[in-house]
Amino acid sequence: MAAPSQMATSELYCWEGDWDLPSVDTECLIVLAYAKFAGAPLKLHKIGNPWRSPTGSLPALKTSENGSLSRPSDIIIHLRKQKYNADFDLSAKEGADTLAFVSLLEEKLMPALVYTRWIDPKNYVEVTRRWHAEHAPFPLNFFLPGSIQRQQLERLRLVRGDEELTAGEEVEKELYRDAKECMNLLAQRLGSNKFFFGDSPSSLDAFVFGYLVPILKMKLPNGSLQQHLKSLDNLSHFCSNILALYFPSEGREDFSRKVSSQPEGGDADNEPGKRRKQLLSVLVALGAMLSYALLTGIVAIQHVQQEALDHRSPGLRSLSSNEEEEDEEG
Questions:
Q1: Which of 29, 39, 120, 296 has the maximum number of C-beta atoms within 10 A of its C-beta?
Q2: TM segments (predicted)?
């Protein structure tokens, strides 16, 4: 590792954290872990809106030399060029092993991770979509989760070479079988070591951590992968150790945010505030419904106004019918 130079001006944009994680996103976790391992000084921006990043996606590294970078591999290469290299002490064989295991992660574990978070209906509706809707700004929170889900589905179809791939028991069984085999190989390779190549972490540790720790920590209703990971003690301890060593404040920060969000004082003290919040919630909900309808084309203002002038009752019935369809789809 080198002394800090121009890296002090680099800014990293990544998804916010939760569940005691520094970020909820695998690729962001890889970059965050590697930067910690290499000692790279970065100005960190944790956000819930990818449109606020310089690339429109997350993670994104804004540099003074190479513009903005998004792919974890490109960001890691940039850090290495700045002499922040977590792989400096690896042998040629260990470097080859790193490439082989990263390819294995992308081929066998990544598809299952995408499926369990974005495609599995129960996990997506109850956890993934809800989390992104709560952390994205209005009105982006109405369509951002669905947009990301479509991107992830296309990514999975491309990796699997199946343009018709959808959620289903057979697909899930195959993906999870490959993922569990991958975890078993990782556990065998790690053995009793602290990190994959001894006592110092490398880029392989960053990739494995980024893929595994969301499985370990996220509260997903369908937790088949989590159960298998927890059965592999050395891999579970590997993830927990990196969190404790390199991200020790994450759990306390999450707890502080939850505590600070609670209102002070009793219900009687906050009664006027509660009424204002209730009224504001109603107004926001109405605005949200109208914005969503306009954005998705469910309500066409010009058409409805003309129809209402020509046939007032049918026009009202048409608008009511559209609203009922929207409710059923929601």
A1: 29
A2: 279-301
